[in-house]
Amino acid sequence: MNAMESPPQLMEHNRIRIMVVDDTAVNRNLMEGFLRRLGFQSFSARDGQEAVQLFHQERPDMILMDLMMPVMDGFEATRRIRQAQGDRWVPIVILSALTSEKDMVAGLEAQADDYMAKPISFPVFAAKMRAMLRLLQAQRNLEDALGRMETITNAVIDGIISIDESGSIQSSNPAAAHIFGYSQAEMRGQNINILMPEPYHSTHDGYLSHFRATGERKIIGSLRELSGRRRNGEVFPLELGVSVVDLPDRRIFIGVVRDITERLRVRQKLAENASRLQAYHDEQEREQELAKSIMVRQLRRDWLQDPRIDYAVVPASKHFSGDLVVAAHHNGTLYAMLADATGHGLAAALSAQPALSTFYRVAGEGVSLATLVAEINDALATTLPVGRFVGASILRIDQTSGVGEIWVGGVPEALLLDGGGAVVREFPSVNLPLGIVASAEIDLVTDHFDLAKDLQVVMYSDGVLDAISQTGLSFGSEKLREALRSRPGEERLGAARSALAAHLGGANAHDDMSLLFVDCTKS
């Protein structure tokens, strides 16, 4: 069963309304068909001008935008919709047959959120929609939370005022403005001491300076009877409770005037939630360390110590890599595999585990390369959910026959280098990634080559070629080949890693990066 026969289902998607903008009826019908299969509501526009009009009328939750259209193209329509959307973010995904880097950059610079090239692959489209839906739901949840918080704050009968570390008023609720006789706009930006009679008016800035320097608390965290001063100069008694909130980039102080019973209850609840979240985080860290330890123990690192093998795996996430480099031996035959599971992190690492265990078991029987690939593929096809798969390059070196054999699917082409680092042969990725369909339904295509002096096979994952520099450029195949050219075999891994590091310029890799070098000299 292929992905078109079993489309992934999205949670809470039936309330999402998506506008499809395309001047071609066939394309509109196709995309609306895709969206129906995923459970979304949809409607369409025939050009950019109609899209802008419908955006105001229908208020869609998401937009799929073509670029080349009459009346108004997708670039201008995207810019106009962005100007009109206000505080309500509406994701715009460009679907275009324009596939040049220049067109993609132009589309994204027009403030689109993503770019997909036509023709559209349904599994990729479904995955993109899931990702956009998660972002959209997070945004809507944040907007709802902020709206609820503002509504609650404005409805509280006690006055609430926030100030920064310099004492400048950042916000106040209507009750606070009423208590002190100011409007909220008049209070914003003023020093909090305008609300205080002497001696607090003259000494409050000193309290803040002392707190910043020592952390010593005098009023913070306690309830006190003090005096306030209204705009008309009237001095009146008040109860004041002050709390401090440490945000990632700054610290703010929250003051509650008069009865703060409810405020203290909320503070206590927030503290309990923070403690539970920290405990949950700590537990997750421990579990991830345990999972990592278990996965590491499954690797036969002793087989990777073969002098013919040189490799590197650089994970994009803290704990886990979706890339896998393994080797096995059987009666003079060397098996080596570089695998790249979908995504990165724990999910990708787990996706690769069936390939690891099957590789060791089947390679240990000294089977043919086609048998090994088929076994791994079937293990993944029966284990992984729809949308998850593993790309791989798998190599078999038979010293007895003097023949090497390689299978490549779902990862970049493998290279055969001579002693001078020149590419003497490419092994293109002509096979499907592992785990998509059963082996009985596909032809497993392998390439053969004769072992010879100083030959070396190079395999690498997508993350190597797709590594993005700080200027937005991909590392690419040519830079990799340039790094390997004129290098002896033992220096090539180091040269490739140095070239990648220089290209990234200190930036973090967005995908796992793996390289595997295997000497193919006939003994």
CATH class of the largest domain: Alpha Beta
Q: End-to-end distance, in Å?
A: 45 Å
Sequence stretches where pLDDT stays below 50 over 5 or more residues: 1-11
| CATH architectural category of the largest domain | 4-Layer Sandwich
Mean pLDDT over all positions: 83
Largest sheet: 5 strands, parallel
User: How many strands appear in the DSSP assignment?
Assistant: 20
Spatial ordering of strands, largest sheet: 2-1-3-4-5
Overall geometry? elongated
Instruction: Say which CATH homologous superfamily of the largest domain is assigned.
Output: PPM-type phosphatase domain
Strand content: 15-25%
Structural class of the secondary structure composition?
A: alpha+beta
The third-level CATH topology of the largest domain is: Phosphatase 2c, domain 1
Number of domains: 4
Rg from C-alpha positions?
Answer: 31 Å
Number of helices: 14
Helix content: 25-40%
Describe what this molecule looks like in 3D.
The longest helix is centred in the middle third of the chain and has 38 residues, at 261-298. Helices cover 38% and strands 24% of the residues. It folds into 4 domains: 3-152, Response regulator (Rossmann fold); 156-259, PAS domain (Beta-Lactamase, 2-Layer Sandwich), CATH 3.30.450.20; 263-296; 299-519, Phosphatase 2c, domain 1 (4-Layer Sandwich), CATH 3.60.40. The protein is an alpha+beta fold. Helix 1 (25-37) links the parallel strand 1 (17-21) and strand 2 (41-45).
